[in-house]
Structure prediction request, 1338 residues.
Amino acid sequence: MIEQRKINGDLRKERTTCTFDVEELTNYLDGGAEVTRKRRKFVNFFLNDSSFKNDVPGEYLSHQELYEETIRKVCILFDKIKKWSILNNDTDDIYLYIWQYGIDTAIMKQNIPLDVHVTMFLPTLIGQGTPEQQSEWVPRALSNEILGTYAQTELGHGTFIRGLETTSTYDSATEEFILNSPTLTSYKWWPGGLGHSCNYAVVLAQLYTQGIHRGLHSFIVQIRDSETWIPLPGIKIGEIGSKFGMNSANNGYLAFDNVRIPRKQMLMKNSLVHKNGAYEKSSHEKLMYGAMVFVRVLIVRSLVTHNLFKSVTIAVRYSAIRRQSKLKSGNSESQILDYQTQQYKLFPVIATALVYKFAAQWLWEKYSTVTSELAAGDLKHLPELHAMACCLKAVGTADAAIGVTTCRLACGGHGFMNSSNLPNIYTQTTAAETYEGENTVLLLQTARFLMKTYRTVKTGSFSTSTTLSYMENYNDLKKRRWTSTLECMASAFYQVAGSKIEDCNLTIKRLVNSGVTQEDAWNQTSIKLTHASEAHCRAFVIDVYLKILQTSTFSTEIMKVLTDLGELICACWIINRLGDFLQFSNLKPCDVQSIQYLLEDCLKRIRPNAVGLVDSFDIHDNILDSTLGCYDGNVYERIFEEANKSPLNKEPVNRSFELYLKPFLKSNI
Amino acid sequence: MIEQRKINGDLRKERTTCTFDVEELTNYLDGGAEVTRKRRKFVNFFLNDSSFKNDVPGEYLSHQELYEETIRKVCILFDKIKKWSILNNDTDDIYLYIWQYGIDTAIMKQNIPLDVHVTMFLPTLIGQGTPEQQSEWVPRALSNEILGTYAQTELGHGTFIRGLETTSTYDSATEEFILNSPTLTSYKWWPGGLGHSCNYAVVLAQLYTQGIHRGLHSFIVQIRDSETWIPLPGIKIGEIGSKFGMNSANNGYLAFDNVRIPRKQMLMKNSLVHKNGAYEKSSHEKLMYGAMVFVRVLIVRSLVTHNLFKSVTIAVRYSAIRRQSKLKSGNSESQILDYQTQQYKLFPVIATALVYKFAAQWLWEKYSTVTSELAAGDLKHLPELHAMACCLKAVGTADAAIGVTTCRLACGGHGFMNSSNLPNIYTQTTAAETYEGENTVLLLQTARFLMKTYRTVKTGSFSTSTTLSYMENYNDLKKRRWTSTLECMASAFYQVAGSKIEDCNLTIKRLVNSGVTQEDAWNQTSIKLTHASEAHCRAFVIDVYLKILQTSTFSTEIMKVLTDLGELICACWIINRLGDFLQFSNLKPCDVQSIQYLLEDCLKRIRPNAVGLVDSFDIHDNILDSTLGCYDGNVYERIFEEANKSPLNKEPVNRSFELYLKPFLKSNI
Prediction:
């Protein structure tokens, strides 16, 4: 930690006004003081390594140079992961922490090409391989002797995986599968690391045996020679080109021209192709859910929460040191954090980060429970887990993208500079609105579950899903008198969600009765359906937060500030969707003023704790990686220092002057 | 134009379903068939020039290479501008067209370093120079014999220009000004082209003469030697480093250490420093408004409208050729444009683009009128112009940023690729939310005008501003019965705006009565004040659109589709702020269903015209610069072709394999 005397005076003052013990909240958020200690040790082990330092920051490199630098660092990172395990005798899944704490992105400012090797290639081998296949492949992948990617999406198909076109045709004569890419749109497109960083891939393809189409299956395919790295015969590989962000992820394309692989390289845990080509489906298709759900859980847990934490830490600290204009003439310039409009931008982001933090915790625990149940053959709670992962991923990433943008804009022009790190956090966050299930599609998947459950409940059955128990009583709740308390507001969210689901059901019924087909009726109700899913998600998130406050043991001071934040986020979300609450909840027009007042009052109450709150997120300066957000608040010195790292600032005159400008100017005299 | 047979079948079909004459609408939007003809000639003249072609697309270059390539192209562009003027005997302000049609961004994908030379340096010389100064400097700037930038913003101050710290102290002994940058925060920061592309700057500094502080004034300062381009003694220059976008703009920093310039290099049209240091203020400060307003008018007219046109053209065409999943089992995959949720994302963006197009036209005409009035010494309408430019810039750029993002997300993963051009359009658009007046600050400026006018009207006086005449009758309008017609909805927007302004006035009054100071009361009402400004802006924009429909002569078919779009945008904006309309307008809860129905019905009505509408925006393929948006719809071929331009795809194996990956893999066996 930097010496106290070097810390910006405004920030130092802010830290003295904080009403609660920052370390206590940090420990709570981590899950205990011991976890905080381990996390700090972990982060320092990885980030205090000078071999990750850049001579020139990544944003000044060419696309190709950036890739080369990424590979250099990735190899160091993977070696360090092994070293950490050995040194600390740590058998946990280290990569999960790398991801959760944002170490990979701290090193490259972006996702790295071998993410997919760890988060998808390896889990697929484990999840879909037979015991023999696992013993052959998993140790090689685990030790990084081979590097793999997961090739599902194609140029022409992302969302609708049944439409994938890559084929795998079994040839019983040679006991091989023959892989082909029959069209340009069948080219695999997007897999991370596929461009130049992997020699293996799990490939999803339409299986044909005995002349019969057997649906999508997964195959292990070697794509590059391990000695020369040259693509194997019949295989076309490249990277997909420059993107909005995540350019070090090396997303690639892949096409097959009669590529043969042995029979045993189809992953056969769930279905079997015999030597003669006979096909046998062995297990429940719903088990496929599990793996898809896992990545969505990770997105909510790591990406949504972490990127909101980072952005709002940067913006709040900057707003404490930035002084601009005067609230009162005669006084000195005001900290921009004292402007009501600035508080209104930033404090709800703090609250948003926390409510998703707790919701992600619920989701993570639910995932563990359901995984155990699945292992015991119990599929009962899988649809609920799936539905909640879908809407939390969709609403969470959308809220995170908006939150990060709000933080960036709240930093004015300086937020537009890459040295603030806010642009980079944004591109990373918004990418997750699309990948691993496009958000609108996910909301409609949740909606299917909601509609189904709603109809079940209406016929008198009870729901087995605790997240949907409100369907039984949301109309009764409307009879209560409004008070602007957390409990009352949380209840209003359920009233809105329930009413919206009811309205969707009615709309579809009405359309079908008027002669529209079921499928068209669904499409014609889909705007409303996505809104119903969103309302359900928000009601759930608020409820989880409320329950945390009701069941955890905090100090009085922390309870107070967490209550302030809870009231703030409820008030904000209600005001932003006021029409819904006026139509569908016990909120009356005469109560609106009290909500607006509550909102403004929360901003005032949170003001002295704003810096303390972001400090409690305890993000290492190297992870923030921001000139505006560092713990010491020496913003202007850092901005200037970073600017001077631009290669253009190494020479007083760029060569383009002699080459182009000078002749141009002369010609104009 | 590309031959018909090469056009994607889906797009070809879409074009046959269009109900109106695309060329008629194009001509209307241009301002007549003659303007369309000239625009096309102009665009072709600039864009059909192979010297603007890239060997390697800009996104693969390093920061420095990108800059050098930019300067090469800028010199060609400026030569071509002269050539056009001569060839066509065209005395118009050519650069305005370059900007309006997006030619500069088409050439570099980004703003160019000499934008500021034309849009700010030159106008400031003209606007603030005496006739003698003008005759000395303007011809040299106009012929590009010297290249200038406009240095106002500093590292520590953007919004609050009175806080700028650069000093200019008059030394009557030598009849010179001495420029100094007393602190790091006083460094000029952000001026476009300042980094390495200009040898002159207009510098804003705090003037001191005879030991007295005289406030901010403008000075012409040479910053680089014209022969060697080396920064002059006492001058420190560099670029500010990498940014979210607009990296070819070469934004720079600048500091002075006792730099002396002759007395005649202070721009003295509005105030004078005599040889002996005596200071004389000659004219009205409000005249400074004019120049600031001009750039905001340009932003609404060019950037907001044009970037929405481009984005929605790309997204609609892509959605017509992209097929994904099936609306009806058994059928072939559906065009994603047939999904209600996709229509709900895109069609409102078409409407948004058009309403701002018309509002910008109003603003442009208002600007011309007020400029003439100013020349005649009449300042009456300046505050209204200023207030409208502020809120239209703020709400327009915010809506544009959201619209562009919506289009990008609607294109799924492919929208994230830079070859879609959507990321680049976004960074350009969102930058305008901050520059030339941060949006929240601008909304509060409009709010000041609204509050002042409101109080005037309440005391019985009439407003001289036609945009505010609704303040006299918004409460009466609430008595009318709701019908979901354009007229009724437009009136509701005024009811909401008026009521929100009234509420702000009441809130401030109440606070002041309770003992809060006027200044604190303003701050504590500022969330509401920004919302009131926004409501005013939307009411105005809708009203302009309605008046265009009422007063222009369109064919029946075009009138129909423009009415569809008008109803759609009203319905969308009402639903998005339903709470406001339920509280403050004649809309009753029982009317809400009819608005939702209208919205959905508009989507259906617009569906057959979607491609026709974006075709009518008539954006040249080279300006769209998008693999997803080209007129012919050959999306997948273009994506693949662009991907292969990546330098990483020029070799089968990147050098990082031998350098890093191979040793790493070997060590893991």
